[in-house]
Write a structure and sequence with these properties.
The structure is a single chain. The chain is of the alpha+beta class. It is 26% helix and 18% strand. The protein is built from four helices and nine strands; from the N terminus they run αββαββββββαβα. The strands form three sheets. A four-stranded antiparallel beta sheet has the order 2-1-3-4, with helices on one face. The chain has a three-stranded antiparallel beta sheet with strand order 8-5-9, covered by helices on one side. The protein starts with a helix and ends in a 29-residue tail after the last helix.
Length: 192
């Protein structure tokens, strides 16, 4: 009799575990970036800015909240006045981006799985510091070799970096450093 109860308890726990996994797997898919996308914080067309973008989807709301930079999407998750019912956080996958100026309309990655380059010389969105997301750690490291900075995971991005001043980088003569055309040297590698 005890064996039957043990088997029933084990079966029930496996079913509950499977239900929990299904709930996690139900993350809504990302939306394609279109000309109608307006940045949450700047109120401008997201496509008017270079560098990686972000989108957040809230529970039970079938539309994206758009961000002109990946850094702004991360800021949304840290600000106490923003909603907490986040169903998905997506950022441009710069491992698959055609260029820095055109990061792509459909190459999104779950921000929680991305490798972020922070503290680099490359500037995003509005010319401010950026958290540059990559799906491949090797691509993030190649970007660091070219632009400086360091690679961190979603949970290790410092709040002060995201919510800090985000001032444009200054060159030796005090002028802002302009963004480059390509996020990293793709060389003989194809990241399609």
């Amino acid at each position: 009799m005890r064996t039957a109860w043990a088997i029933a308890a084990l079966a029930a726990s496996l079913l509950l575990g499977a239900c929990s996994e299904e709930k996690v797997a139900e993350m809504p898919p990302p939306f394609a970036l279109t000309e109608e996308a307006m940045g949450r914080y700047c109120g401008m067309n997201v496509l008017e800015h270079a560098g990686p973008k972000g989108q957040i989807i809230l529970d039970k709301i079938p539309e994206a909240i758009w961000f002109s930079s990946a850094r702004d999407a991360l800021a949304f998750t840290m600000l106490p006045e923003e909603p907490r019912n986040i169903a998905a956080i997506y950022v441009s996958d710069m491992s698959k981006a055609p260029s820095w100026d055109r990061p792509g309309a459909e190459n999104w990655i779950d921000a929680k799985t991305a490798f972020f380059v922070i503290e680099s010389q490359q500037r995003g969105g509005m010319g401010n510091e950026e958290a540059v997301p990559f799906s491949k750690e090797g691509d993030a490291n190649a970007f660091v070799s070219k632009h400086g900075g360091r690679v961190v995971g979603f949970n290790d991005v410092p709040q002060q970096y995201i919510l800090g001043s985000g001032a444009p980088a200054q060159g030796g003569d005090g002028d802002p450093i302009p963004p480059e055309g390509e996020p990293h040297d793709m060389g003989a590698h194809h990241h399609g």
